[in-house]
Design goal:
Chain lengths: 305, 353
């Protein structure tokens, strides 16, 4: 790991310095790519968040979040329920508009990420409670992941012109590949509506992967499945990063699961980032332990009923 | 292992295609000769027109998930547009008027589909009522549409395509059948393409569809456009092949509901369901009235008889939808599956990876 083991406060500074470096390198034009075996490329963040704040009415969901995700890393964002993890992902995918701050995806900077262009920018995501198309087969669901590449209009599609046929064949081949990769071959012609939850989690992963996104956002990819499926899914996520050469940001509230899976972990609590570092650093961080186990604050009186 | 040629032939010649072929041969080669004028004129031609309308609505509601209560308006637009194209552009072939009428209906459908960009479900359904009332009002209010007929009635000219007359009962039936077959074919192709997948994605999860890059605006308006195109063409058949004299009042809200019931009873998001639903709604009341008249004709007068038919049909619809919420088509498929299992016991199939 290239990250110097320091206190979380320091790593934040490192992250901020890196953000500035990125802005600089983007102005210079082109994204530098580190050659060699080091997968985590510290030079070119795929995703950069700069002081993102978001509030719903009077409730502050996110408060000045800074985050830089390097190319090729698996970055977990963890935190207790209501810490703002999903809100953060929704800001990155443009479903929420942040009150303040900038989201930078590759070389493009956004105050509000345009959701309709998300796939074209190279970002794919999954959802916490599955967002599959129940009335479509698994194969069709996965093919939907390439919808943003389709150029042939509906008249061409009805007439099945060479262009339309070529696009369809290409999408089908890519979908078949993703389906094989995630071992979904046996169910590919079944409707998504009737399949078990663990399999659907993989279908959603396949739909997100098929477009070969530069950045893959996974909202609780391991939640709600059995322990065995959890292990499988974690392996799939890691393999997906390697085989599809992508960068992954995933959300979990189960701190144990992500320790072995992630390269780096950011911890949110009450909408603030309280730690950001390698799994070992985060594990021993006092603020993280406090957030997860609770801490008795001075001057707080227990309510006795 | 079979040889590739044979397996390809076997794959092409599926039971479904066999059934379709039998149906088409019957519809083209048997019914025109064996069917009585009553059957062709009063049963099959309206069935075909309404089935096409149901197919159009099913595309929008069943596949793309956008509820519409304005179907009858698009029927009317199609009918009146074809009438005016025919009247005001004398050299225009009838088929061109038919297609142009479809496009006019599509344009009207797209305009009234605009609220779908903001509204969903019941709210959208209510807003589509605007089409229903506006079109009926406009056709009655502005005499131009009906060539200044005081009550807005139009008389369709006899059907003729490329010099061939389709004015008899058989001719009008064959013409309707051909139009419906072609339109159904195009609709099927559309639904099997990426656009069809986009429709269903929109219906099943709009947010996910947006995130992966389905162009929501274009897809929704396309669904409204294609749907009202088909319904508009159905309106041309309704006016030119079936009734031949139509008035705006004939395209009222009842008709819209009738088409909606067809797809709910037949089965949402199913092409065969649209046809089954149309058959049920068109044929069943006729059967019931024959049956009722024969059985109770000398006990009750015709008014009581008609009332009791409505009650029976209503009860049947409720019973059917409780037994099979997915519509008649699911019922038919289940029965067919049972028969197939009995005739051809299931073999263990290899799992294709």
């Amino acid at each position: 790991m290239s990250l110097i083991a320091t206190a979380p406060g320091n790593s934040l500074i490192v992250a901020r310095a890196r953000e500035r470096a990125t802005v600089h390198s983007n102005v210079a034009g082109g994204t530098p790519r580190a050659a060699g075996a080091v997968r985590v490329d510290a030079g070119a963040p795929v995703l950069t968040l700069q002081s993102i704040s978001l509030s719903f009415g009077g409730v502050t969901a996110l408060d000045g979040i800074d985050l830089a995700v390097a190319k090729g890393e698996i970055r977990a964002i963890i935190g207790p329920n209501g810490a703002g993890k999903s809100s953060l992902l929704n800001v990155v995918s443009g479903l929420y508009r942040p009150g303040r701050g900038v989201v930078q995806l590759g070389s493009e900077r956004f105050r509000h990420v345009p959701t309709a262009r998300l796939a074209a920018v190279g970002v794919a995501r999954t959802f916490q409670n599955l967002a599959l198309f129940k009335g479509l087969s698994v194969l069709d669901n996965v093919m939907m992941g390439l919808v943003h590449c389709r150029r042939a209009g509906f008249v061409r599609q009805i007439l099945s012109t060479p262009q339309a046929r070529r696009e369809e064949a290409k999408a089908r081949a890519a979908a078949e590949e993703a389906i094989t990769f995630l071992h979904l071959g046996a169910v590919k012609h079944q409707l998504a509506g009737g399949l078990p939850y663990g399999i659907l989690k993989r279908v959603e992963l396949a739909r997100a992967l098929v477009a070969r996104p530069r950045l893959l956002l996974l909202d609780e990819p391991l939640a709600g499945v059995t322990l065995g499926e959890k292990r499988d899914l974690a392996a799939h996520v890691r393999n997906a990063r390697d085989a599809y050469d992508t960068t992954i940001v995933l959300i979990e509230h189960d701190i144990g699961v992500v320790m072995g899976l992630s390269d780096r972990i950011a911890v949110l609590d009450y909408g603030r980032k309280i730690a950001d570092g390698s799994p070992d650093e985060v594990r021993s961080d006092q603020a993280v332990i406090d957030a997860y186990l609770g801490v008795a604050h001075e001057g707080e009186t227990e309510l006795v009923i | 292992m079979t040889t590739p040629i044979r397996s390809a032939a076997v794959r092409w010649f599926t039971p479904n295609r066999f059934g379709l072929a039998v149906l088409l041969i019957t519809a083209y080669a048997v019914i025109p000769f064996a069917g009585s004028d009553y059957l062709l004129d009063a049963v099959l031609t309206p069935f075909l027109a309404l089935a096409l309308a149901a197919l159009g609505l099913n595309l929008l509601t069943g596949y793309a998930g956008q509820v519409s209560l304005g179907s009858a308006a698009y029927l009317a637009v199609g009918a009146y547009a074809a009438y005016n194209f025919n009247l005001r552009l004398p050299g225009l072939p009838f088929l061109a008027s038919l297609v142009a009428a479809g496009f006019v209906a599509a344009a009207v459908g797209i305009v009234f589909g605009l609220p779908s960009l903001r509204l969903r479900g019941f709210y959208l359904a209510v807003s589509t009522l605007a089409a229903q009332f506006f079109v009926q009002w406009a056709l009655t209010k502005f005499g131009w549409f009906s060539n200044n007929n005081p009550s807005g009635v139009i008389d369709a000219p006899p059907l003729a395509v490329a010099g061939l007359s389709f004015s008899g009962a058989v001719g009008r039936y064959v013409f309707s059948l051909t139009v419906v077959v072609v339109a159904t074919l195009l609709g099927t192709r559309l639904l099997r393409s990426q656009v069809g997948r986009n429709f269903m994605a929109l219906r099943d999860h709009e947010v996910a569809a947006k995130v992966i890059g389905v162009p929501l605006l274009r897809t929704k308006l396309l669904a409204f456009g294609v749907s009202s195109f088909l319904i508009g063409v159905a309106g041309v058949l309704w006016a030119f092949a079936y009734l031949r004299t139509v008035e705006p009042a004939g395209f009222n809200l009842d008709r819209s509901f009738q088409i909606l019931f067809m797809i709910i009873i037949g089965g949402l998001a199913s092409i065969r369901g649209a046809f089954l639903g149309a058959a049920f709604i068109v044929v069943f009341p006729l059967l019931l009235s024959r049956f009722g008249a024969a059985l109770l004709g000398n006990v009750f007068d015709s008014g009581v008889l008609e009332m009791s038919q409505r009650i029976v049909i209503g009860a049947l619809i409720i019973g059917l939808l409780i037994a099979e919420p997915c519509g008649l088509i699911a019922l038919v498929d289940r029965v067919a599956d049972k028969i197939r299992r009995r005739v051809f016991p299931p073999q263990s199939r290899p799992i294709h990876n």
